[in-house]
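Tutorial sheet, problem 5. The two components below are modelled jointly, 551 residues in total.
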Amino acid sequence: MAAIDARALSKSFGGRPACREVSFTVERGEVFGLLGPNGAGKTTMLRMLAGLYAPDSGSAEVAGCLVGPGRPGGPELRARVGLLTEAPGFYDRLTARENLTFFARLQGAREVERRCSALLERFGLDLHAARPFAELSRGMKQKLAIARALVHEPEVVFLDEPTVGLDPEATREVRSVIAALAAEHATIVLCTHHLDEVERLCSRAAFIAGRLVAVHEIRQEGLLRVELAAPFAPDGVLQGLFRNVRTQGSALFIEPRAEVPEIVAALVAAGARILSVTPHQDPLEDAWLALLAEARLR
Amino acid sequence: MIGLVMRKELLELRRSPVLLLSMFSLPATVVAVPLALLAWVVRAAPEEALAFVQDVYGVSGQPPAAGLATALARTWLPMFLVLPIFLPILLAAQSIGGERERRTLEPLLATPVRTLDIILGKSFAALLPAVGITWLAAAAFCAGVDAVAGAMLLPDSAWLFGTLLLSPLLALFGNAAAVAVSSRVLDPRAAQNLAATTVLPLLGLLVVQLAGRIALGPRFYFGLAAGVAIADVALIFVAVRLFDRERLLTNWR
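Model answer (C-alpha cells):
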C-alpha cells in the first residue's frame, strides 16, 4: 500500500484556487519531490496531506488515515506524520532541548528524553542543546526543526522548503541530513522550487502549478554524452548495449546497459570518431521549463 | 496535554523577568494608594469631614480610623476582582496571535494537540501568576487596613470568598475571553483592547460602590460566583468552537 495516495485534491481560499485536482501516489521509502513556482500550491498541498487543511474536494489516504472534504486528518494523522514547516517556528526563550522535548511530548513520542538526546547528537546540536533557540544559527535552527519532524518516528515526513534562506554551508548540511534520511528509506515528501535539490534527493517529482502538470521520473544513474567529430547514426551498432539512445547534432545521448569501454569499442568499430565521453544527467530544468510552458499554453 | 501547554507557557514567562515584574506594578498601586490616602485622611481631615464620609458609607458610630477603614474594605474589593483579569490580559491576548506572529502556530497545530488543550493550557498559564499576585496584594491590603484601623477588620467572609474563589473564576472568564478573542482577532494589540472590555462591568461596580450608592455583601458575591462559573464553562465551549485552525493559518486580518 502506498504511503500517500492523493486523489483529485482541490483547495481554494476565498474563491481563489490554490490546488486543482492534484493526484499522485508516494510509495513507502520513497523520496518524492513537490516542485512548483512560488504560489503554485505546494504548501497548501502539504498542509492538506499533513492534516492541517481539509480539501474542498477529492480525498487522500496518508499513512493509513483518510483526508477528505470537511475532514482534515485529525490528531491520528498528525501523530503519524512529521512536518517541517517553512519557518522553524520554535520558542525563542526556550533552549533547543526544551523546545524539542515540548514538541516530542505533544507528538506523543516514546522515551522522549532518550529520543531527543539521540536526535540532538545526530544533528550535531548536542553541544548547543542548552542554548536558547534565539541564539542558534539559521542552519542549527533548521536542523532542530528537522529533528522535531522526526522526533516521534513518523511514517511520512513532509519537508517544506528545507533550505530556503540558508547560507551555502547550512544548505549543504541540511541536504546531507535529508540524504541520510533517504538512505534509511524514510518516506519523504520534499516541497521545494530548487530543481537541483530534487535532482539530488528525489526519485520522482510532481510538477505543480495550481494543478498537477506531470509526475517526472528522475534518472539518478544519468546518461552518457558521446561527442563525435561528425554526425553518426548509431542504428544497429549498439544493439543490446543501451536502453535508449538519441542524437542531438554531433552528440549521442546514451542510456547505457553495458560498460562504457564496450560501448566505445562498438562505436569505434562502426567507424564513429569519438571526441569525448562524459556522464550526463538529463537536466530536470529543461523538463520543468517545457512542462511549465505547456501548462501556460493550456 | 493541558499541563504540557501550560508548563511551556509558564517557562516562557519565567524567562521574561521584566514582563513578570511589570505585572506587580498595578497591584502595588492598588494596595499602596488607597492605604496611603486612608492613613492621611484619618490624620489630616477635619472631624466634620470624617463624620460626613462615615455617614455617606453608613459606618457612623465607630472611631474615624475604624469607620473609614471599614468603608474602604467594603468598597475596594471589586478592584481585587478586576486585577486577576487585567494583569494577564497582555499574555492571554497574545496567546494565539503571538504564536502566529512568531510563526510557532503552524508547528503547534501540526501536532495532535486538541483545541481544548490549547485554550485551557494557555488560559491557566496566564491565570496562575495573576491570581498568585492578586492574593499577595490582597494579603498586603488586608494587613494595611488592619494596621490603620488598629483592629482586625480584614479579611472578612466577603473578602475571603471574593479573593479565594471569585477572583480565580473571574480571571478564568477574562482569560478565556482574551484567548478566544486572540484566536479570531489576530493582531495582538487589537485583541488586547477588545479583551480589556471584560473588566468594564466590574469597574462600574467599583464606581457605584465608591459613590456610596450600594453596599455589596456576601450574598451578591455568592450569586456572582455561581453566574461566573457557568459563564466560564460556556465561554470555554464558545472559544473552542471559534478556534478555526484553517483560518488561523490562512487569514492575516
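Marking note: Chain A has two domains: 4-217, 224-280. Full credit if you identified this.
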